[in-house]
């Protein structure tokens, strides 16, 4: 069966749904293809910095999400070697783009809010893309696992680290960093009692963080460099829990209690992958009427909390670039060619705007994670005595960014 859709977005994650909603706000319809049967909420939560809130405000859902998530006031960084706080600083600072705003957002709440704002038939679930081919210079054919073929003028890949679209554009699979993460969240029956602080611990080759989402929920993460023996608990939440507790025995009792109270179905383990910065520099973010965004473009380690934020930025910029391209008019006799050329230029504009931002975030995240999780006396000294405040400042600097509004210029 063959269908036609002007704009096809592959992946109903943060980047895909934000792009679709941005287009919808600008009066442009899109079709989102999602391989799973429902919204994917892997990861449980994400840190949303000031740059993310600008994007959420641009698509009109920032106010609702603020009501459901606690404002984080401070960050406290503690060495697990000495047990002493190395740095504590306010997160309520002013930058070039206004006052900072940091919250820990439940991924499920964000995705459901994005979905709720879209027309009901925008997302098509159980629609796995298996291949892409040229129907003509102006059109792409998207082949699904169930045999359906969708003909489209614009194809956007927001299909994550294993992206079919990024592979079509020539990107290599993101390599393993040598580090893995276990994530979880705990919902308390009453108030959890934590202050609105981001609590970060590192040393002895591990890195962990704890941050409240609201009055009853605390999200946490733990990163380490796994050995071959660690593979045995990848799909065993009970062993994950035991492993994390064994590595976090030096943490304060209130912090360890968060892990102890985490239900087994609230654990997830995953390898940390990233895109080499030079591949983003030289690769094809777009080609003709095809492009990628989100983790399909810039998978990064979670060490500065910018993966989801960058995906939100992508969605706003991409929707704006596509709308500008589609709403321009010309007097070309060949309308199909004219539309294709405008789309091609719009996607190139997106790539140009996002290339260096992506490189900056990928590189910074990798460096911060490497330094904070490294071992050795020299590195411990440099990190604990010299670099901690600098690294904390980087989190603020990389979030001081404005992706702009959805308004278009014709």
TrEMBL record:
Molecular function terms, GO-annotated: FAD binding; monooxygenase activity
Keywords: Monooxygenase, Oxidoreductase
Pfam family, one: FAD_binding_3
Entry keyword Oxidoreductase: yes
Superkingdom: Eukaryota
Keyword Mitochondrion: no
Residue ranges of every copy of the FAD-binding domain listed in the record: 6-342
InterPro entries in the cross-refs: FAD-bd (IPR002938), FAD/NAD-bd_sf (IPR036188), MOase (IPR044560)
PANTHER family assigned to the protein according to its UniProt record, in alphabetical order: FAD/NAD(P)-BINDING OXIDOREDUCTASE FAMILY PROTEIN, MONOOXYGENASE 2-RELATED
Family, per entry: Belongs to the 3-hydroxybenzoate 6-hydroxylase family.
Protein known as: FAD-binding domain-containing protein
Species classification: Eukaryota, Viridiplantae, Streptophyta, Embryophyta, Tracheophyta
């Amino acid at each position: 069966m063959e269908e036609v859709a002007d704009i096809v977005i592959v992946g109903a994650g943060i980047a895909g749904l934000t792009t679709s909603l941005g287009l919808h706000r600008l009066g442009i319809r899109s079709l989102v293809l999602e391989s799973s049967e429902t919204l994917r909420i892997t990861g449980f939560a994400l840190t949303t910095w000031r740059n993310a809130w600008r994007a959420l405000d641009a698509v009109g859902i920032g106010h609702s999400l603020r009501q459901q998530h606690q404002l984080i006031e401070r960050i406290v960084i503690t060495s697990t070697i000495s047990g002493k706080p190395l740095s504590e600083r306010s997160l309520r600072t002013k930058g070039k783009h206004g006052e900072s705003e940091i919250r820990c957002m439940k991924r499920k709440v964000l995705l459901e809010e994005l979905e709720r704002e879209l027309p009901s038939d925008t997302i098509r679930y159980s629609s796995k893309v298996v291949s892409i081919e040229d129907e003509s210079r102006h059109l792409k054919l998207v082949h699904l696992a169930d045999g359906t073929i969708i003909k489209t003028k614009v194809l956007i890949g927001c299909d994550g680290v294993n992206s079919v679209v990024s592979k079509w554009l020539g990107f290599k699979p993101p390599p393993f960093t040598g580090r893995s993460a276990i994530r979880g969240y705990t919902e308390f029956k009453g108030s959890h009692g934590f202050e609105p602080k981001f609590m970060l611990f590192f040393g002895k080759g591990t890195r962990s963080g704890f941050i409240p989402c609201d009055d009853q929920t605390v999200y946490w993460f733990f990163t380490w460099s796994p050995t071959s023996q660690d593979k045995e608990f990848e799909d065993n939440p009970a062993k994950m829990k035991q492993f994390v507790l064994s590595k976090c025995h030096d943490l304060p009792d209130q912090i360890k209690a968060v892990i102890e109270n985490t239900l087994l179905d609230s654990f997830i383990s995953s390898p940390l992958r990233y895109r080499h910065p030079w591949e983003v520099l030289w690769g094809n973010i777009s080609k003709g009427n095809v492009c990628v965004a989100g983790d399909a473009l810039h998978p990064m380690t979670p060490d500065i909390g910018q993966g989801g934020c960058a995906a939100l930025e992508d969605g706003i910029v991409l929707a704006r670039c596509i709308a500008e391209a589609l709403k321009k008019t010309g007097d070309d006799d060949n309308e199909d060619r004219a539309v294709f050329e405008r789309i091609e230029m719009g996607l190139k504009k997106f790539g140009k705007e996002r290339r260096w931002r992506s490189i900056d975030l990928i590189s910074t995240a990798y460096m911060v994670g490497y330094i904070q999780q490294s071992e050795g006396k020299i590195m411990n000294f440099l990190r604990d005595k010299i670099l901690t405040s600098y690294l904390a400042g980087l989190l603020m600097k990389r979030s001081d960014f404005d992706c702009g509004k959805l308004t278009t210029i014709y």
